[in-house]
Structure formats: structure tokens, C-alpha cells
Protein 1
Amino acid sequence: MIMTLISPIHVNAGKFGQGDSSGTPGQWYEGLPPSYVDPSKSPIVFIHGLNSSSHTWWQENDMYDTALENGFETAFVDLYPTGDMWNNGKLLADKLEEIYHHFGEKLVIVGHSKGGIDAQSALVHYGASPYVDRIISLSSPHKGSELADLAYSSWAGWLADIIGGKNDATYSLQTGYMDYYRQQTDPHASTPMYTLSGTNWGSFGSSLYWGGLYLSSYGASDGAVTVASSNLPYSTELQVGDWNHSEIRQGSSTFGHFSDYLYETTEDSQAFGTADTVSTNHHLSDSFIRGGHYSGSTQETFYVEENVDKLTINWLSDQKNTTLELASPDGQRWNKFTSKTDETSFFEGSYHHSLTLDNPNSGKWQIKAGSISENYLLAVQYESLLNTALTLELDQGLNISIPTLNHTPYGPDRKTMKSTITMEYYNNGKQTSRKIKWDDLDGTPSRKLSKLGEGVYNLTIDLNGKTKQNKDFNRTIITSVYIDNNGKVLK
């Protein structure tokens, strides 16, 4: 950890590497000046992400050391750790102006995770673009994160609320809200942006494994953010590397991949414009979700269909020492779960109790839990042929349909399928819930949801039925959309 003091030239700059470990929003720090200041090298401003602070760049991280050793001037800004891109963008814009005048030249921003979004907000919406040459974002969820959708879903919302996972930042990172943000931002983006993203979420038992597993149906990810979300139509992708969400901010991991873009003489060549908005959105189904609160003990049941290659049970909890026992249809029992704290940032303060089984028996499974008092989320992940045979489609009219592949022998029997759709509508801090039963998927091609006004609609679709092999199955699909003041679905 760096324990140096900066020169007190600027009254708003703090003691570098000292003070409150959580950071003070609005504080910024200047790193030690390099032995020789190359005028061609731009000062770097580092921006932290969700549930983080400026200390993330030098505590257990060599990013600051690496930048200094390579002759770059540096600054580090503390924003609100759970603030949305609007409040953080406004605060950051003021700090960027100060830092620009302090160094006397244009800056390059390096933002980790949500820090890249806050940076773009500062430039596009709060007038900071004259002070910045370019933005380099490290695994920033520019299109939102499905983990934020999960945190605001009907099943996970209780746990997220208890542990503080429901906050302005997570709310704004729902994929539906980020579609709205992109509509407001992309047409006005003029500062070149460069992106890096990761594809490593570790092996079973690692801290980001479950996040990567949950996101796997949406494509490659680093355990918290997908590669697809890390890029924009007008950004330049510098590298997709074998990093997880924590490693990508390490200097020894990524500095060399973006260092060529830290010079004033770097030529930028990018096309700016509005991202395309699709009228229909598709989601695959590979998980089953349940959650709630209990005191003493509880149990949950779920079904496993035929030909499931792998089954992962994740019990996400606000308790570290929960007692768990899993029972298969034939009476086998498991009670040794791997426990890890959450590092996705979306459920910070919670614990993952996980177990993976190969080739599980089909039928009804049961998991029992015991604790004095517990808030929990059960997420069952299936590696199964059924996953690709079940999809969700959502169109501009807010009509939901669940098409299935009829040609596969492992697909669902549509005559047996039923669904419960839970819609959580958020507007101006108020939540409205709607629950719709859909018991005739075979006879009704789609269900139309009511538009309740402008805002975020978080949708939880619970499916159950039988496969063509007459085996029970269950799945949960979670997504979100934003409806603007004209009634248009931004998705």
C-alpha cells in the first residue's frame, strides 16, 4: 500500500493512501510525480466501481505502482460507492475540471466496472468532455448486468434489500434501465472510448464462480459483467483477456494492453452514433430461482429433468454458518457445501454456499436449511439440453411469448407448461407488484403485460411442466425493461 503524501497544492486533494478505507466522495488524490514528466504522456485519472473506493487502485493492486514506474502522473477520485451514474457523473465532472486545471492538460480516464459508466456520464451529461481526451473502461457494464436484474427480482429482492444490495447503483445497472441510459447517452457521445473485458470466472468454489455461472447463458463474462455488455457499438475493443472482474483492474494484468492510449499524440479513429434498439429480446433458460426469509428451518424443492450433465446448487445467504442438506430422489444426501463471500458487488456482504454434481438423477430434489434467522436465495443451475429448447421473447408491445423447439426429443411438452409472471414496477422510488398466472401456454401464444407508466419493469417468469420424456422440469427467467414516457419499450 502506498503511504505517501501528496503536495498540498490543491485544497480538495487528500492524503494519498491514508484515511477512511471506504473513501470520501468528492475527495481526490494525486500520486507521486514520476522522476521525469514526459509532456507527451497524459495524466491518468482512475475511477473506481460499485461498492468500492479510490483505494482499490493501490491496496492489493499494483496499478498505481505500474503507472508511476512507466512515468505517468496520476489522480484518483472517490465517488459515491452506491451512487447512480447521474449523481456520480455530476460529482466527477466537477473533480475532472479541478484535476484538469491542476495538471494543466487534458486527461485520460481509466474506469473499472461502473466507474467507466460514471465517467461517460460526467462527459456527456455534465460537461466534462473538454477536460478528457479518452476513456478506457475495464469491464464496465455499459449495457447493464443481469446480476442487477436478479437483485431487483421478486425472488432475490428480499435478500438484496436486507444486505444493502438494493441501492441507486444496482437499480441503475439493471439491463432495462441501462437501455434507457444508452438512449439518452449514445447520440451525444463524442469522446473516444476503449474497452477491455474478461472471460475468467474461476473454477468451482472461487469467489466469482457463481456469478460467471449465472451469467453463462448470456455469453462469456468475468464473473460479474459479460463481454457483450463491456463494449459499445462505437467503442474500440482493445482486449478480451483471461481475467476475472477483480484481476482486470490489476496493473500487472492490463496496463500494458492500454498504455499506448495514454499519450496526447495517440490518434483516435471512432464512429459515434446511436446503438440499435431491437424490437424483440431473447433469453435462454438454465436456472431455477427461489428465495425468502425463515427462522429455525426451511426447505425448498426443485425438479431435475432427464439428461442433465451438471447441476450446481447455490444457496446465497446473509448468514455464514447456515446448515444445509441436499437430498436426491433416490435418498442420497449431501451436506458439505463450499462457502465463499460474494465478490460480484451486487450481493456484497452475502455468502455463497455451493455444491456441484455431475449427471444428477431426474426427479424431485429437496434442500433443507437451518439457521436462527436467515434471508436466502436458492439458485439452481442446469447444464441441460432443455436450456436451448426454452426461450423467452419480449416485444415492443410488452407481449411475452415462450417459443420452444419442437424438433428436439428433449424439449418441453407445451401442453403441460404453466407459468407465473411477476412484474415489479419501479418509478420514483415506489414499487408496484403484479402477478399473472399463465396456465395455457399451448393454447395462448403470448401474454400481454400492462404498462403502468414510465420506469423500470423487472420481470420474473417461473416456468414448470413436463418434458417430452414425461419428466418434470422447472425454470426461472429474470429480465428487465424500461418503458419511456411515450410508452416505448427500450430493449
Protein 2
Amino acid sequence: MSKSICVAFFIFVIFYMLGLGFAVDFLWLLKVIPILILGAGVLTTKPSSTRSILLLALMFSACGDLLLAFDIFIYGVGAFLLAQLSYAFMFKSYWTGIAHRWPLSVLLIGGMVTMAWLLIPSLGDLKIPVMAYLCAIGAMGLLATQSSLPIRWSVLGAILFIISDSFIAVNKFIMPIPFEAYWIMSTYYGAQFMLVTGFLAAMKQQNE
């Protein structure tokens, strides 16, 4: 991505994080602008199937952001599930096998199983959609760790996305996290930036 796109992204991330401390009526708009800026950066690249899927992932993410901002939780989860499946599909193109980075994969599986064990007693009627989402993001993470892409940036972005969603799950279903919005959104924006940066770098390398 261009330097101007990166600068604009981080400026609006800062605006949003500052807005969390105030009763800003248009905070929902500030929330989605960084993702739209990443989409604009993707649009400047050469058309390809990867670019199209990456744009879909960002579009579903933006929809999820808006739905969660207005506390429409179940549909927000659905939108982000589609985003995770989009990212998983892209990682699948770089899959090298289960033996690749297997220690990291084992740690990830252990984390997902632990999270499921902690969440299930508190989910109630949301058990099926939340478990479906957990499976989707877990699959995305495994495909990332087992891909040929370097740890920096996309793989780290996938792991950071899982951490961000874990903050959401713990805060909503297990126990309150102090300053939860800052933890959730800082890791979320970092994850999206790393994912997009990594995939665009891979696309550029393929075209050279």
C-alpha cells in the first residue's frame, strides 16, 4: 500500500480510539473508516481473484463493524464469519501442509479448544453461532500458520485477529475486561492492517 493510505489509516484509527473516551454520536462512522481506507488501498492494485476476495473480506468486516456498533450482535458475528472464511480461502492458496510450523498450529488448536471450553457454559441460545464462528476463525488461523507466507505480516495478522475476537468473547460471555474497547479495537485494526499488507505483498511478488 502507498504511504498516504497507511498514514490515513493510522490517523483515523487514532481518531476512533480517542473517540472511545467521549460520547461521540458518529463513533460508528469513525469505526468503519479505517477498514474503508484499507479497501481503497486494495483497489489501487492490479485486478486479480485475490484482490476481489480481499475486498470481500474487508466489506464483510465493515458490515460487521457497523452491526456490532449498533449492538446487532448475531448478525455482526455472521458478517465477520464471512470475513474469516474469505481470509481462510486466501490462505488456502498458500497452504503447504500440516507439518509446516506445526508447533504454532498445536498452540493455536490448544487455544481454540480452551476458548470453547470456557465459553460453552455461558453461551445459551448463542452456542451454535458462536461455536461456528470459533471454528471459522480457528480454520483461518490454521491455514495461516500452515501457509508459505512469512510470519510477517499476514500470519501475524491472523493470530492478532484471533486475539481480538478472544477479547470480545471473554468480555461478553466470561468476565468484564477493563478498557475492553481499547484492547479489542487496537488488536483488530492491527490484524486487518497486517493481513492486507501481507496479502498485497504476496500479490506483488507473484506479479514480478
Protein 3
Amino acid sequence: MKILRKQLLVPLVLIVLAMFPAAVVFSQANGPHQGETIKGVTAEAACAIVGMSAEQSQTLALQRARTGAIEQAAGVSVSSATLVTNAAVAVDLIKTYARGFIIREEVLWLPLGQYQKDASQPPIPEYRLKLTADVFVPRKRIPSLHLQAKLNKSVFQAGEKARITISAERPTRIALFNLMADDRVAMNFPNDHERRNVIEAGQTISLPAADSPIELEMQTLPGHERDAEAFLVVAVDQGAQPVDFLKLFPSHSPMSMPAFFQNLSTIADICEEVILPYEVNKE
């Protein structure tokens, strides 16, 4: 995705995933924050190179392992799939990121394997890895903001513009992030050009606003035919602990996925999130 200053350039998001569940080692309280950090969660993953680049396959395997770790830590049903050969499934799996945050991870890449459906089909190269992670599972300590967010489309062609509508039932301070295809996260809003990020009770706003100097132009990453990506809307009650998103998250440079969620975990108990996954297809 391009952010055009009507031009900032920020690519978008997340392509996801394949996994085996493993064990939680131990858990502990997360200091002053409301929630629990589950340490030493392990998950294995594999992704075959089918209709995507080697780099995309690696990212899919890593993201699938993260999904498995989050599912275990959050105590939800763990996906039975151990292999992903089609990046299109990423759109659904991205939603797992609302259940818990990986704040530390160690990745061990295993020897390259191969996937073969049956003897009549040729084998396909397969990336495999083992992930060991600390996962923070927040415990909310504010009433629901009844945050709602909607994307104008779920499937974009390169060059089309994105627009998000957001509403909440109480005065709310918001931020908009991209989960990016190169495994990083960027804050799109607020930014140096548009700092207004408060929604009044019952109000609905659009990002970008009609008078904004910024446009969100959707693009695949170089060399990609299709990317599965997401917007993440984060909202904090205006009456709760004040949060300065521009101090907490850099507005000029993307963050690694664990570094982003480490920062987000510090406010996770007082914020509400909505994930808006989508696809971008090359022209």
C-alpha cells in the first residue's frame, strides 16, 4: 500500500501461515499491566512454495507459527492445519492477532523439506521452522467502547484507494496501523500531517478524512502477485489513562512485529482493537 500525501510511502501488511501446537512452559503476571504473559510457547510451521515467492513462503510459515502460539496462549481452539500452500487463507488467520500479542520470539529454521500430495504429483519445496515465543494475553479493565470499523472493500486491485469508517459509543482516541507483508508494522494515523484522532461519542469518522492531505493507495509489494494484509484500528477511552500514540509508536519508520506488540501490550488493558484484513491483487 502507498500512503500518498495527495505522498508518504508505507507498504502494508501480513501474509500468513502453517503450524504444529506445542507446550506452554510457564506463565506469570505482567507487572502493572492487566493480563498474563505466557512464556516459552512453542509452535512449528511449514509452508510449501505454491503460487508465491520463496520470501512469501517464509513469511507465511513464520506467521502461521505465531498464530499457533497465540491460539495456545489464549486458550482457544488450535488450528488442525500443519501446512499452507495458498496465501489466500491469510485473510482469516490474521484475525488471530486480536487474541494475544507475541512480545518476544526465537525462530529456528529447520532443514528445507518437501510436500507431496501423492505419488502422481511432483514434490514441492517446503520451508519449516520452530518458534519459541512469549505471548501477552491482555485482560481488559475498561467497559467496551463498542468500537466499530469498516473497510470500503475486502479485495483491492493495485491503485485503488482504501477508506476506513470508524465509530465508538464514548469519546475515543484512535490510531491506525498496517500489518505489513514484509513482517513489519507501520502507524498510518496519527502522523505529522494529520494529528486529529479523537472521536466524539456516537460520531462516525472516515480515514482518510475528506479534507485530508493523505490518500491510501493499495499496492502489492515488489515481485508479489497478491498480498494478504490488514489494518489494525486501536482505540483508547478518552476518560482513561492518556495515551500519546505518536510517542509510543514511531510515525516515520515501521517496527518489527514483536517490537510493535511489545509496545501495544503496555496499553492493551485499556484499549480496544478491530482488525480489518483484506487482499491486494497486482494489476
Protein 4
Amino acid sequence: MNTHNAAQAYKQASIENAPPIKIVRMLYEGALRFLDRAELATSEGDFKLRGHWISRTEAIVSELRASLDVSVAPEVGQELDRLYEYCQHELSQAYLSQECSGLSNARRVLRSLLDAWKSVEVHQATQL
């Protein structure tokens, strides 16, 4: 096994064995990273690449939304659903309009949610 394959196998195993809260955090971080790339592509005038990164961000938000279990905490689940729907709308508008305001709006929501999940993750770690 070469070094690249070993690194990929390690990364895959660490994701598969990660606690759910860590996976959620990683998804938010990925979405924000993709938004950075979409904004960079915009500044470079590469709208095809910009669309690619917006689509990748939308895929993460869709996955987060689809994985909501509102039966656990109905009010929180419903609020998260509304926030994800808002992000999806803003990303779609950004894709269609070629403007960055939708990217900024989605980023603001996703950044706030990431910060909240990080707080929950830290709290859980201190409870162990």
C-alpha cells in the first residue's frame, strides 16, 4: 500500500468511526470551505467553477436537512429545517444571479450553526 492509499484509508476510517456530532461539524466546515472556493472563483471570473462549488455546498446543506430527526427535539429540528431551507434558497439565488450576497447570507447562517455545534461538542467532551 503506498502512502497516498494509506492516508486515504486512515481518513476514511476516522470519518466512519467519528461520533455523529463530529461528522456534523465536518459537514459545516466542508460547506464553508466550498463557499470560500465559490467566492474565489467569482473573483477570478470563473463562473463554471463557481457553480460547481455552490452545487457542492448545496449538496451538504441538503444532506444536513435530509438527516434531521425532528422527533428528538421538534422545535430545534423545525428551526434547523427553516435555516437549511433559507441557505438552500440563498445558494440557489447566488447560482442564478452570479452575485455574492446569497453566498454571504448562507455563510453567515452556516458559520453560526458551526459555532453552535462546536459549543455542543466541547460541552459533551467536558461531560465525559
